[in-house]
Amino acid sequence: xxxxxxxxxxxxxxxxxxxxxxxxxxxxxxxxxxxxxxxxxxxxxxxxxxxxxxxxxxxxxxxxxxxxxxxxxxxxxxxxxxxxxxxxxxxx
Length: 92
Description:
By secondary structure, this protein is mainly alpha-helical. Helix content is 63%, strand content 11%. The radius of gyration is 25 Å and the shape is elongated.
């Protein structure tokens, strides 16, 4: 991994990616230059990665939430009526 300093304030990792030639040839005409294409590809990859991280965090929150709910069930009083509780929730 190579680090490249951009505008003296931001470090960026550089990766080599292999993309099918026919895919690249079909997209190239949509961009004014190779630099514009590279910039767009970088933006798309960053957005994809940010969405991936957000999805991972949401998945982790769901796990915690489920765990909390299960603990609540385990600590319910012995005579607690689960069916009645669900019916009451559905009535709201």
